Amino acid sequence: MREKSSPMRAPWGDIAPRLTEITDHVLFDDISRRPGLNARDRSLVTVAALIALYRTNELPFHLRKALDNGVTRDELAEVITHLAFYFGWPTAGTIGIARQVFAETEQQISKEPENAKA
After folding, report:
1. What pLDDT does 66 receive?
2. Largest alpha-carbon pair distance within the chain?
3. Distances (CA, A) of 90 to 55, 84, 102, 108
4. What would the pLDDT profile of 16-49 be if each residue is shown by its tens digit?
5. Are 44 and 25 a contacting pair, CB within 8 Å?
6. For the chain, what is the domain count?
7. Which domain holds residue 103?
8. N or C end of the chain: which has fewer CB within 10 A?
């Protein structure tokens, strides 16, 4: 039996709990766990799609998820650079969102107790 995801902390959960439940079960428990792509590659594809479509609202969450799934900062910066030439120069502006996520990630890592880093 597959492990279920932890519930999503959706910003709309208080007014649309069913939407959150469906998102958790369909997207995070079913679609995201299909065997065709591993979590790292799935994150890379998701981030690329969000950048190409300039979906900046969802991008910070998925950038963090990509880092958690093993995508490197250099790879994410390269995706943004590459897509700027295929989807229009404004998509390069998502590098500012990536910078903010990277800084927040660094702050979280620096606040972890020493034994948690090992």
Report:
1. 97
2. 45
3. 12, 7, 20, 29
4. 989 888 888 888 788 888 899 999 999 999 999 9
5. no
6. 1
7. 17-117
8. N
At 67, list the tokens. 């880092």
**pLDDT for the residue 25:** 85
- The residues, ordered by sequence, that sit 6+ positions from 32 with a Cβ below 8 Å of its Cβ are 5, 39, 42
Q: What is the domain-level CATH number for residue 62?
A: 1.20.1290.10
CB 102 within 8 A of CB 80: no
Q: What are phi and psi of 104, to 5 degrees?
A: -65, -40
Separation between Cα atoms, residue 115 and residue 59, nearest integer Å: 31
pLDDT of residue 11: 72
Please state the length of the chain. 118
- CA 101/CA 7 separation, integer angstroms: 21
Contacts of 54 (CB under 8 A, 6+ apart): 87, 90, 91, 94
Q: pTM for the whole thing?
A: 0.80
Residue at token pair 């943004």: 80
Q: What is the pLDDT of residue 1?
A: 45
Any domain includes 51: yes
